[in-house]
């Protein structure tokens, strides 16, 4: 078995295990609908021989966006735009997937190319909004969020279910929830962000309660035959935060609640968290997380093609590649023979 071997998850067969990692393009129109940029960007990568193309973090509700230029999946107009995106990805030969996001306290900031790359809050009078989070504790530089009430929780669960149903109607065949990098799901799990004293806070079992409801809400809007993945930190990389022992418990609970695969992406809950930079850093946690009984994928500094062979099958079941595929949409094809290129390009060789 190699990274080019097919992988079956529920009723979906992925043609290989090299996948595009979700990467925000901050290029949606003002209504959160995909634009021509998305068609060109994802179309090029789908023609690049990837088993799966994961569309960037797509918000389940307006106040769950990170920026005003994020994609959404709460309206009919957005749904129509995603249908077109799905067609373009399928034309290229990849399986279309989407990452759904609820940004929690990491919400309402500017796009990265404004403000010299510094993430800063956008105030409501400038078109921003007040973020919702488990506790009223801000992420550095961003607005103080409002602590979620149980009514907010009910609404977020409805948003998730509707977005999952919309993702299905758009034609996506795999759904991922962004449960890492300090988004709402991760904020509830981590004692560094969840300071609640009600049923949703306390020990790990209590902090897991709302995240598991989030997953069940997605499952109820997403068909049985289609796989559900959660992007999860392997640990918080900071004393007092989530440990690998905590996270294997979470991974097993996800497996019992309809999740087929976890996609490891660690850190970024707080600015002080450690940063992993060496090649395959998240994939190295793979063998540990496989003991939780779920399939495991990971992203993180896969920049040379030999890393793909090091990762599969030894460490993980699939590899998500980010920046290398921003630099070069044909990065994966370059390791394979001429035959694997689209036939429209064969005369190039
Ligand atoms: C421009 C950019 C946007 C990103 N947006 C997202 C996102 O929408 N969702 C997510 O889970 N991770 C996001 N990430 C993280 C990547 O998916 C990936 O996990 C990370 O870049 C590490 O993989 P790499 O070393 O192959 O780039 C983003 C990264 C970049 C560079």
From TrEMBL:
Alphabetized UniProt keyword annotations = Flavoprotein, FMN, NADP, Oxidoreductase
Q: Name one Pfam family in it.
A: Oxidored_FMN
Q: Which source organism?
A: Pseudonocardia lutea
Q: What is this protein called?
A: NADH:flavin oxidoreductase/NADH oxidase
Q: Which residues form the NADH:flavin oxidoreductase/NADH oxidase N-terminal domain?
A: 7-334
State the taxonomy lineage. Answer: Bacteria, Bacillati, Actinomycetota, Actinomycetes, Pseudonocardiales
Q: Which cofactor does it need?
A: FMN
Q: Which domain of life is it from?
A: Bacteria
């Amino acid at each position: 078995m190699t990274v080019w071997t097919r992988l079956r998850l529920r009723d979906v067969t992925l043609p290989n295990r090299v996948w595009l990692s979700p990467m925000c393009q901050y290029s949606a129109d003002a209504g959160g609908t995909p634009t021509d940029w998305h068609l060109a960007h994802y179309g090029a990568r789908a023609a690049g021989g990837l088993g799966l193309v994961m569309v960037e973090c797509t918000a389940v509700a307006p106040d769950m966006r990170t920026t005003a230029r994020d994609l959404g999946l709460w309206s009919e107009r957005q749904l129509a735009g995603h249908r077109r995106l799905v067609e373009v990805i399928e034309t290229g030969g990849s399986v279309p997937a989407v990452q759904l996001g609820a940004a929690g306290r990491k919400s309402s900031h500017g796009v990265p190319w404004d403000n010299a790359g510094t993430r800063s809050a956008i105030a409501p009078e400038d078109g921003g909004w007040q973020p919702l989070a488990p506790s009223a504790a801000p992420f550095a530089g961003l607005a103080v969020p409002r602590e979620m009430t149980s009514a907010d929780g009910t609404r977020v669960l409805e948003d998730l279910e509707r977005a999952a149903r919309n993702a299905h109607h758009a034609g996506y065949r795999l759904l991922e929830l962004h449960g890492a990098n300090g988004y709402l799901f991760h904020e509830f799990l981590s004692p560094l962000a969840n300071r609640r004293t009600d049923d949703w806070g306390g020990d790990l079992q209590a902090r897991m309660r709302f995240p598991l409801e989030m997953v069940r809400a997605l499952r109820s809007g997403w068909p049985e035959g289609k796989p559900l993945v959660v992007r999860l930190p392997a640990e918080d990389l900071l004393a007092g935060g989530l440990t690998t022992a905590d996270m294997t418990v979470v991974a097993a609970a996800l497996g019992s609640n309809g999740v087929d695969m976890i996609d490891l992406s660690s850190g970024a809950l707080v600015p002080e968290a450690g940063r992993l930079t060496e090649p395959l850093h998240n994939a190295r946690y793979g063998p540990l997380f496989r003991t939780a009984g779920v399939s495991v994928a990971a992203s993180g500094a896969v920049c040379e093609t030999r890393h793909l062979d090091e990762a599969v099958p030894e460490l993980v079941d699939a590899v998500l590649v980010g920046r290398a595929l921003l630099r070069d949409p044909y990065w994966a094809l370059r390791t394979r023979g001429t035959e694997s290129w689209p036939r429209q390009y064969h005369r190039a060789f």
